[in-house]
Amino acid sequence: MAFDLSQYANADPHLSSGERLLSVLLGLGLTTVASQPRSNIFASMLALATGSYLAYRGATGYCIVKASLNDRTPRVGPSRS
């Protein structure tokens, strides 16, 4: 199963340059911390997942969470008669 990122390649970035830089730095830092052996494997996996997402967010400039919070598109549902 492939995950297609092409939909985000031409999208307007939701993040400023500062947010992108901070996300990349924090993401790389968290993945580095997660790669160290720990007694709690759950904490390491959580740090790895979070760091990976932050690095992705900073590299692409697109944040799925921020986009969904800023989405002001009206929802069209079934008509109520």
Explain the overall architecture.
- The protein is mainly alpha-helical.
- It has a domain at 15-68.
- It is built from four helices and no strands.
- It has helices spanning 6-9, 17-34, 41-60, 64-70.
- The radius of gyration is 17 Å and the shape is flat.
- The chain starts with 5 loop residues before the first helix and ends in an 11-residue tail after the last helix.
Work out the helicity level. 55-70%
Radius of gyration: 17 Å
Q: How many strands, which pairing sense, and closed or not: the largest β-sheet?
A: none
Number of helices: 4
Order of helices and strands: HHHH
Average pLDDT, to the nearest integer? 79
What distance separates the N and C termini? Answer: 42 Å
Number of strands: 0
Task: Determine the oligomeric state from the structure.
Answer: single chain
Write down the overall geometry. flat
Strand content: under 5%
Which stretches are low in confidence, meaning pLDDT under 50 for 5 or more residues running?
A: none
Structural class: mainly alpha
